[in-house]
Amino acid sequence: MLVGITILLVFQLIGEVTAYFLGGFVPGPVIGMAMIAVVLTLTGGKPLLESAHRQTLDTSRAILANLGILFVPAGVGIIQHLDLIRDRGLALLAIVLLSTVITLAVTVWVFILVKRLSGGYADD
Amino acid sequence: MTEGLWVYLATSPLLWLAATLAVWLAATGLAGLSPGNPLLNPILFSIAAIATVLCVSGIDYAAYFEGAQFIHFLLGPATVALGIPLYEKLSLVKSNLLPLLAALFAGSLAAVGSTVVFSRLFGFTPEVVASLAPKSTTAAVAMAISSGLAGDPALTAAVVVLTGICGAIVVTPMMNAMRIKDYSARGFAVGLASHGIGTARAYSVDPVAGLFSGIAMGLNAVLTSLIVHLFL
Questions:
Q1: Does B40 lie in the same domain as B25?
Q2: Global ipTM
Q3: How far apart are CA B217 and CA B165, in angstroms?
Q4: Domain segments of chain A as ranges
Q5: A124, burial (CB in 10 Å: exposed 0-12, middle 13-18, buried 19+)
Q6: Which of B45, B73, B101 is the last residue of a domain?
Q7: Mind telling me which residue stretches traverse the membrane in this protein (chain B) (predicted)?
Q8: Are B104 and B200 contained in the same domain?
Q9: pTM (two decimals)
Q10: What residues make up the domain containing B33?
Q11: Closest CB to B193 among A29, A44, A100
């Protein structure tokens, strides 16, 4: 547990430092996410690192299984924008709904189209 | 005496940290009574319950956040932890590389592009447009992108959660109506459009959908932080 959380925080830290030097173009935790995926791939199967590997995976699963609660504190911040919601709430809801439906449709169609073109459904 | 106790507790981090955890556990228990009912979304329920208590009791957000920040802080390491499903499912990513990359680029452009176009059409200020633009990515990333674009991270957080809940509610009826049977495609779409909330929904529908949803969420976080610079 402690090893896992330390590894995640160290990768976040490396990500933040990298983001600082990139001028904040990509957020630090995102760089940390890409780096940890690459490092785990490179170090996978090394007996010396097996315990650290396992603990990182266990801690990550525990965090991701409870991902929802992490959005609550930020979401409650909506009470700072009650006037915007009262005046323009319907417009905001319309934008979110329209853009989410469009994004879902575009993504799923392109995925299926390209998978079909590249022979991904050959066994159908 | 009891009023003195309330004043004492309401300003200490302990009360709001404990309250957020307790409300969340109650909300997940409630959601478990009717599995698959997206209107009982525990995130939506928790936010509504806590926001109501704060508004009624006149506690400001800064006092609440003193306690809730300990939970909020974990968004950073949780974003890093999203690299783990990417690593574990590398073979699945490789075998679907073409559809995955094509859908990632198309979906990410659609998400940011449609949001920016619609919010400008509705006459929102540049600050609000910048706050809405990254709304399909996970909260930690969206807030970082928003503040980098001179948006308001608190508004971004609220809209990110709204987008997540919206996608989680819409995705199943919409994909059924479109007769999409490939759960890897369905999951990828909801993870790209609705980040972690969509991914939690996808896992509750189908494990393959959940997996592709997590992959989409991670990849879209990276791509959106680059793509927003094309629009803003």
A1: yes
A2: 0.87
A3: 15
A4: 1-65, 77-124
A5: exposed
A6: B73
A7: 6-27, 39-64, 99-122, 153-171, 183-203, 209-231
A8: yes
A9: 0.83
A10: 2-73
A11: A100
